[in-house]
């Protein structure tokens, strides 16, 4: 019979299990710290745990979750990792180094069910949700290779809010003093706008940041790019974000991928500012990142500057033009698909 994965326990579940095994509750804290903070790959490495307890753990549980299949580094030092899961599925994660931060971009699903036309991951289709320990393991394995990790963004493969329960469990490990000790203010969850889950996140005790992939202020264009907009139109999305801001007392980041001739006109800029009126926010303008089989193009540098310049004049909050990282290794925004992960 296959051994159960020890990492499939949350800290609370592990504490309950330890009591059932007849041991003192502090053993759960020791195990959790060894697994998630120290990255132990074998129970024998847990040297402050008594040998009989280590033997019990070894006889009944297994540690490994992910296997590193490949790692590539781009010209800008961005690194893309391909991991295989125990069931044979594959996912990608990205490490983005900057002077003041070391960010890991996480996947939350194998593939994605939303079919967004500006995202390469959509070509895979949807396979399954990731478990919280499969999400957290991405950080652990990358951390062992690159060293310090300061920030987390759920902007990899999948729609995080369609797997919110597991994502939140992962967030708790990432921010736990027995885990990675990354403050929740340095963790960002990105969504295309799953409205009921935005309300749920707004009412939760979690203190993560929220980013919304908007990409157009026009329902007809947004529905073309992001088909789920038919179910969650822009007006209803804005209502949920007003509620989120009211509950959390923090701004929302809007990701706006600029596509030549589709959402980059002066009228688009003016309507975007009008649509976001009253929502404390930041706009990240992202020139479209090409991927195999896609006909979209990014505007020219001059066209991007004109769009951003107009927004600077009429939008009261922060606007940035984000330089895409890792595009030469298909690690940029919307480019993850691992050759469609056979």
Folded structure, characterized:
The protein has 342 residues and is α/β, with parallel strands linked by helices. The protein is 33% helix and 20% strand. It has helices spanning 11-20, 26-36, 51-60, 132-146, 164-175, 195-202, 219-225, 234-248, 266-275, 301-314, and strands at residues 4-5, 61-62, 67-73, 79-84, 90-97, 102-105, 109-111, 126-129, 151-154, 187-191, 209-213, 252-258, 281-287, 318-321. The strands form 3 sheets. The protein has a 10-stranded mixed beta sheet with strand order 3-4-5-6-9-10-11-12-13-14, covered by helices on one side. Strands 1-2 form a two-stranded parallel sheet. Strands 7-8 form a two-stranded antiparallel sheet. The mean pLDDT is 94.
Concise summary:
The protein has 342 residues and is an alpha/beta fold.
Give the arrangement of secondary structure elements.
Layout: E1 4-5, H1 11-20, H2 26-36, H3 51-60, E2 61-62, E3 67-73, E4 79-84, E5 90-97, E6 102-105, E7 109-111, E8 126-129, H4 132-146, E9 151-154, H5 164-175, E10 187-191, H6 195-202, E11 209-213, H7 219-225, H8 234-248, E12 252-258, H9 266-275, E13 281-287, H10 301-314, E14 318-321
Parallel strand pairs: 1-2, 6-9, 9-10, 10-11, 11-12, 12-13, 13-14
Antiparallel strand pairs: 3-4, 4-5, 5-6, 7-8
């Amino acid at each position: 019979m296959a051994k159960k994965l020890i990492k499939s326990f949350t800290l609370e579940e592990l504490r309950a299990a330890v009591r059932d095994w007849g041991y003192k509750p502090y053993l759960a804290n020791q195990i959790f710290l060894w697994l998630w903070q120290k990255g132990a790959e074998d129970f024998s490495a847990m040297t402050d745990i008594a040998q009989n307890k280590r033997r019990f753990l070894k006889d009944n549980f297994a540690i490994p979750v992910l296997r590193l299949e490949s790692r590539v580094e781009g010209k800008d030092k961005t690194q893309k990792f391909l991991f295989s899961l125990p069931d044979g599925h594959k996912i990608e994660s990205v490490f983005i180094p900057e002077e003041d931060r070391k960010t890991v971009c996480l996947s939350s699903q194998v593939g994605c069910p939303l079919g967004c036309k500006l995202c390469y991951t959509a070509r895979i289709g949807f396979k399954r949700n990731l478990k919280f320990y499969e999400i957290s393991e991405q950080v652990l394995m990358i951390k062992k290779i690159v060293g310090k990790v300061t920030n987390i963004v759920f902007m990899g493969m999948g729609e995080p809010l369609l797997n919110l329960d597991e994502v939140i469990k992962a967030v708790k490990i990432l921010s736990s003093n027995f885990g990675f000790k990354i403050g929740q203010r340095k963790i960002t969850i990105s969504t295309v706008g799953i409205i009921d889950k935005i309300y749920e996140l707004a009412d939760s005790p979690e203190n993560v940041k929220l980013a919304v992939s908007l990409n157009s202020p026009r329902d007809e264009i947004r529905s073309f790019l992001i088909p789920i907009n038919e179910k969650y139109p822009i007006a209803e999305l804005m209502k949920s974000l007003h509620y989120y801001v009211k509950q959390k007392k923090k701004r929302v980041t809007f990701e706006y991928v600029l596509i030549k001739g589709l959402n980059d006109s002066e009228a688009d800029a003016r309507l975007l500012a009008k649509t976001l009126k009253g929502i404390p926010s930041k706009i990240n303008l992202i020139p479209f990142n090409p991927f195999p089989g896609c006909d979209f193009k990014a505007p020219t540098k001059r066209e991007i500057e004109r769009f951003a310049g107009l927004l600077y004049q009429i939008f009261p909050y922060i606007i940035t033009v984000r330089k895409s990282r890792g595009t030469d290794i298909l690690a940029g925004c919307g480019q993850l698909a691992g050759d469609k992960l056979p």
